[in-house]
Amino acid sequence: METVRHSEHTLKTALISENPRLVSQYEKLDAGERRLLNEAFKPDHDLFGPITLHSQLDWIISHPEAPQDFEQFFSDPYRKAPSPDKRSIYIQCIGSLGNTRIISEEYIKWLKGYCEAFFYGLTVKLLEPVPVSATRCSFRVNDNTQNLQIHAGHILKFLKKKKPEDAFCIVGITMIDLYPRDSWNFVFGQASLTDGVGIFSFARYGSDFYSSRYEGRVSKLQKGSSSDYAVFDNYYTPQVTSVLLLRSCKTLTHEIGHIFGLRHCQWLACLMQGSNHLEEADRRPLNLCPICLRKLQCAIGFNIIERYKALVGGVEDESDSPGVSTKRSREGTVDLPKPVDAFKEWNEWIIKCLAVVQK
Q1: Per-residue pLDDT tens over the stretch 132-166
Q2: Helices of type H across 171-316
Q3: Which segments does the entry list as coiled coil (predicted)?
Q4: Which of 18, 255, 318, 348 is catalytic?
Q5: CA distance 126 to 99
Q6: Share of the chain above pLDDT 90, in %
Q7: How far apart are the two ends of the chain, measured CA to CA in Å?
Q8: Among the listed residues 88, 119, 101, 125, the one whose alpha carbon sits nearest the alpha carbon of residue 314
């Protein structure tokens, strides 16, 4: 394992800048906020650790990129920021997210709540779910996994046409695997920063996706069936677990972060690190490092304390009894656990951050 370490001066400059205007902007932040952000360059800090590399396949090694500090983010003429009349993030569900309607509805509501806390100050709105057929996208069976895949680029075009007037961005989410072009095996997601649209798949986050017993496998498409969307009727969706929800929250907020103009982080362990494979994605934390947190705060204008408090609420079980939420639907009364076990460590970390800010 290799550790990526930067000097105190390098991290301080990446966070604050040496530009007098940006230094002055930083000094106007609340004292508690500065105390937390300064943890980035304290030699003995334990809230924000260094990036660790575990193999040559990890993102930083296989995809060399120039790092982006706060000054570069702030000065980027192409980055998008919410305006007074465009402060909504829209989520469009494509296909079912759960094996019943009520589970699908609850899952997307959990994602909405988390997203609204993460991008605190913006409104997250849910569009009516649509079947794959509504997108008119191309699809195929993956030769390696034998599962159905839908064309990411075609879905982006569909989302661009649906983007509401008050939208900062619109993102599609699906439990169906994605591919960007015929020559590619798969892609977790794809976005157009210019158009403010993105599509992300959570299919590979299920515990059994790579198993030979995966129920989403299909042998092959019949001739002439490449335009018959009936193949997606009652298509398999994995069980919604705490780990699946955590992975989904990571992907959703990471990719929307890119739409705000945040590039892959190379400073500290951070949600905005790139990931080349599932193991690396699982190592990536849910939190933003101080440098990326300042970028997002600059774009949205939130108070860090209020945002952290909203995040704590977003990952707590909302039910009266531990782990169980009773919902009534046409399907009868069902007990739906909000799967938050995988978020416990993250919840404890936020509470530590709040202690630093409020000290």
Answers
A1: 999 999 999 888 888 899 999 999 999 999 999 99
A2: 242-259, 278-283, 290-300, 304-314
A3: none
A4: 255
A5: 19
A6: 60
A7: 35
A8: 119
pLDDT of residue 241: 86
Report the candidate in 103, 24, 156 with the shortest Cα–Cα distance to residue 331.
103
Distance CA 232, CA 216 (A): 10
255 carries an active-site annotation: yes
d(CA 73, CA 69): 6
Taken in order 339, 326, 312, 100, is the CA torsion positive or negative? positive
pLDDT at 323: 41
65: its two tokens: 């990129």
The answer, yes or no, to whether residue 229 has pLDDT greater than 50, is: yes
Contact 154, 76 (CB under 8 A): no
The secondary element (H helix, E strand) that includes residue 356 is: helix 344-357
What is the b/e burial string over 268-301, where b = at least 16 CB atoms within 10 angstroms of the residue's CB?
A: bbbbbbbbbeeebbeebbbbbbbbbbbbbbbbbe
